């Protein structure tokens, strides 16, 4: 081997450029070497170039294999899909030696394709490009599922040019573009691109290399989707397990409360014992509320429903029996109540109603005794007061204190089954009245299609106050309008048993008056009904009627020495004419006007109304008669 031929080995060893392989031939020709020598050098040059090309190809394939290995390694430890796809695009750009590489994915929901990853791009418009399916070079790749390459994009007519695509490609300055499909089975899910800003021919090896990267990208996307589905399934499974655990805990609590409620019933527990037991199980505060409590009355609970309803942050369930509202259980501090806990609260309401019914049954005997005593007071006034007092004492009733007789009625229903309904209403009314009498240390009995109560008169209360309270209580309990009429107070029923029957007649007349006046559902005494009450009252309390009607004016005259009562009498006698009134009184008309204004302030603005005027005239006549009698 000559020195000149050995120089090619040296060039191969240091990886010299292709141009350097011409230097040995040029030097030999310059030194006057013969044709045989020059031919040997040219043969050695060609052989060296082939060896160089082979070595260069091996190095390139080694780099490609290394890049593919690194990509596969990234996929094996896939954590971030975006990072893996970005690495694939970066390596494709580096190995193919292009200025730009990018990857687009199809969006089935939107019906188009969008840029997912770009490398080397400088145009914001290009990076945000969204293309319709089938448009541009990428659309051709997606349609045929085969790689496509163009040396000059804008001169290639094989694919559909659109303004949006051409604007983005022109903005980026791309000329030569290679695109290969991303395949999942037979489905194209996107395209991997390599592009230059100058005309260029992509070799088959480069097309194959980009296809290998596209296969890795498709695997990465599929793996990421599977991982996402797995994570979603695991999350759903965890939620299902949490629901099962929660339901198991709720069922255990429900079983616990069932056992505790059963034990309470068997051992004669009370309503508040039930509330305490449910409070512990439901981790809240449960309280029993009477049916006439303002908050419960406002809800207008249906006594036949039995389902818990939400009221603000509380849960309320009716405690009822036979359509009668006995009260309600109220759960505080537990706004989010699951169906099982709600059922537990409803079951507790059922147990509460059973306990209340049991307590009511135990008290029925006592109620019958109370009714029998009241019947004796009404029907047999000649009984020994000492025996009546002893019977009342056993019932914790003090018949030596002032009492009021109250008559209660429920209006009849116009339904087809009105007879049956009326009978049921009378029974419910009698039961509610007996319960009220027991709590107020009074007496009650069913009578004349309604109920009669003998209740003690509290300090500061009037018969009218007691009638209104009783109407509200019974109406709230029965969820029906109950009309209540009251008698005048009976000071000592046991000492004057004969007064009870007369007081009951007065109370009944008051009830009938309320119904005639279309005031059903209200409570009132004779004193509330003006002169009508005077006619109804068995005692004919004339002085009381005059005092209630004319008292403010008479009191003013007595304090000030004025003559307003006489002026009012003259005013009515003169046909309510101020001019004729001043002639009757022999005063100036302005004086009459001033006196009438004063009377209006004392009696109220409605004293001219026909009803008030009639009552005032009647009171004036009675006042004059009583003055003559005295």
Summarize the structure.
The protein has 630 residues and is an alpha+beta fold.
State the helical fraction: 55-70%
Radius of gyration from the CA trace? 53 Å
Number of strands: 15
* Tally of separate helices: 21
Sheet/helix structural class: alpha+beta
State the major sheet: 6 strands, antiparallel
Which of globular, elongated, flat, extended, rod-shaped describes the shape? elongated
How are strands sequenced across the largest beta sheet?
Answer: 3-2-1-6-5-4
Round the mean pLDDT to the nearest integer and report it.
78
User: Per DSSP, what share of the residues sits in E-state strands of 2 or more residues?
Assistant: 5-15%
Q: Which residue ranges are poorly predicted, with pLDDT under 50 across at least 5 consecutive positions?
A: none
């Amino acid at each position: 081997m000559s020195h000149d031929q050995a120089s090619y080995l040296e060039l191969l060893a240091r990886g010299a450029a292709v141009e350097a392989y011409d230097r040995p031939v040029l030097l030999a020709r310059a030194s006057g070497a013969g044709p045989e020598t020059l031919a040997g050098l040219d043969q050695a040059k060609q052989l060296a170039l082939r060896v160089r090309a082979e070595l260069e190809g091996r190095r390139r394939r080694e780099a490609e294999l290394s890049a593919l290995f690194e990509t596969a390694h990234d996929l094996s430890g896939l954590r971030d899909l975006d990072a893996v796809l970005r690495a694939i695009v970066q390596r494709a750009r580096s190995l193919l030696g292009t200025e730009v590489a990018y990857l687009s994915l199809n969006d089935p929901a939107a019906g188009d394709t969008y840029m997912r990853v770009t490398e080397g791009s400088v145009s914001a418009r290009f990076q945000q490009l969204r293309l319709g399916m089938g448009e541009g070079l990428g659309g051709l790749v997606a349609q045929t599922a085969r790689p496509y390459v163009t040396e000059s994009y804008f001169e290639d007519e094989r694919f559909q040019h659109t303004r949006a695509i051409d604007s983005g490609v022109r903005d980026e300055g791309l000329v030569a573009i290679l695109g290969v499909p991303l395949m999942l089975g037979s489905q194209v899910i996107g395209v991997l691109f390599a592009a230059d800003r100058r005309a260029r021919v992509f070799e088959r090896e480069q097309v194959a290399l980009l296809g290998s990267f596209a296969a890795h990208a498709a695997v990465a996307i599929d793996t990421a989707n599977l991982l996402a589905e797995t994570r979603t399934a695991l999350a759903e499974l965890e939620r299902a397990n949490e629901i099962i655990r929660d339901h198991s805990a709720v069922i255990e609590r429900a079983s616990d409360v069932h056992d505790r409620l059963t034990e309470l019933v068997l051992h004669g527990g009370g309503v508040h014992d039930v509330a305490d037991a449910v409070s512990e199980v439901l981790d809240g505060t449960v309280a029993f509320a009477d049916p006439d409590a303002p908050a419960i009355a406002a809800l207008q609970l249906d006594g036949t429903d039995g389902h818990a309803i939400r009221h603000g942050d509380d849960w309320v369930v009716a405690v009822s029996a036979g359509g009668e509202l006995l009260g309600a259980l109220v759960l505080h501090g537990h706004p989010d109540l699951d169906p099982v806990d709600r059922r537990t609260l409803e079951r507790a309401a059922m147990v509460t109603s059973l306990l209340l019914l049991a307590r009511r049954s135990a008290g029925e005997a006592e109620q019958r005794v109370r009714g029998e005593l009241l019947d004796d007071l009404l029907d047999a006034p000649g009984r020994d007061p000492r025996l009546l007092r002893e019977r009342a004492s056993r019932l914790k009733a003090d018949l030596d204190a002032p009492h009021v007789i109250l008559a209660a009625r429920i209006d009849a229903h116009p339904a087809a089954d009105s007879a049956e309904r009326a009978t049921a209403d009378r029974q419910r009314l009698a039961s509610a009245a007996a319960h009220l009498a027991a709590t107020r240390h009074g007496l009650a009995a069913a009578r004349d299609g309604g109920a009669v109560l003998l209740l003690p008169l509290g300090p500061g209360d009037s018969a009218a106050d007691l009638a209104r309270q009783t109407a509200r209580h019974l109406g709230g309990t029965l969820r029906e309008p109950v009309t209540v009429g009251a008698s005048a107070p009976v000071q000592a029923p046991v000492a004057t048993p004969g007064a009870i029957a007369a007081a009951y007649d007065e109370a009944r007349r008051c009830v009938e008056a309320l119904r005639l006046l279309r005031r059903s559902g209200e409570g009132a005494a004779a004193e509330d009904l003006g002169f009508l009450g005077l006619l109804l009252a068995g005692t004919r309390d004339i002085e009381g009627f005059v005092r209630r009607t004319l008292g403010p004016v008479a009191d003013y005259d007595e304090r000030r020495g004025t003559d307003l009562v006489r002026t009012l009498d003259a005013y009515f006698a003169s046909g309510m004419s101020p001019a004729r009134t001043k002639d009757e009184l022999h005063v100036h008309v302005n004086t009459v006007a001033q006196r009438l204004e004063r009377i209006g302030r004392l009696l109220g603005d409605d004293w001219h109304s026909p009803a008030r005027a009639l009552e005032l005239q009647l009171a004036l006549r009675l006042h004059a008669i009583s003055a003559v009698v005295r």
